[in-house]
Structure formats: structure tokens, C-alpha cells
Write the C-alpha cells for this entry.
Amino acid sequence: MSLPVCVLDASVGVKWFRDEPGSEESRGLVEEHIAGTLTIVVDTLFCYEVLRAASRDTEPRDATRIWSDLARLDLITVPLGEELVAAATDARADLGCSLYDAFSAGVASLLGAPLYSADARAHGAHPGVRLIGRTRSLTKPGQRPDGSRTSTLG
């Protein structure tokens, strides 16, 4: 039996180390990964981004602790390669985000897995994205999160 798979953008990983909206949900995902009930997949930029953002405004030595915690998680990291660059390029065109932000969406597209992100600007239009730390929905009335219309008939 295979485990469910999800792809995380670094904006979600930062929430493991900072107390901010969505931190509890983000930590729940990593707890499932540690328990062996969920597989977390990330792009090759994930750890760099999390380390940079999570250690911002902290003591210099906190970066070492954060790296140690990240390294112990055994996240599945998709390396940079032609297939991923092509998928990220497509995601960039579809989402209107930077290529840098498009890598996590590219991984999700390649795997057919849900993308979890706290970056609504970069990933809000990605099909089936699960936004963390949002206080309101980005969908319009009568629209599902995947962009399809709901029926207006009772």
C-alpha cells in the first residue's frame, strides 16, 4: 500500500519554525510525514528557502539548528533536471509567478500530487492548491477551489 503524497512549497516549511497563521496546519503535515502516514516531496530549492526565511530575525546560530531539523526529516527532494525545468516553465506561464516560485508547482504537476503553499500570489491559481494560513478563500462564490463552477440550481 502506498502512502499519500503531497508537495510543499517552502512557504509551508517556514511555518514549522515560526509562529504565524497556518503554523499549526503546517506542523500537522510534517507530523504525519514523521509518523509515516504521509510522504512529503519538495523541490531542490526548498531547504535553502526555508533556512533563509526561518532564520531571518533570529540568532545567527539558529540557522544551524534549523538546518539540523530539516536534514533529519528525510524529505524526498526532486533534483533539478530537464523534466522539472520544463514543468516549472509551464507552471510559470500558467500562474504568472517567477520561475523560482514555479518549481514547487512543477513538482506537484509532474507527480499529480496536491501542492500545499502559503503563497497565494504565486500559487493561488494552481489547480487544487491547498493554501495554508489563509483566513479567507480565494475562490469566488459559485466556484470550486479547482476553478470549476458549482451549480446554482438547488
Q: What stands out?
A: The mean pLDDT is 88. The first strand starts at residue 5 and ends at 8. The chain has one domain: 5-131.
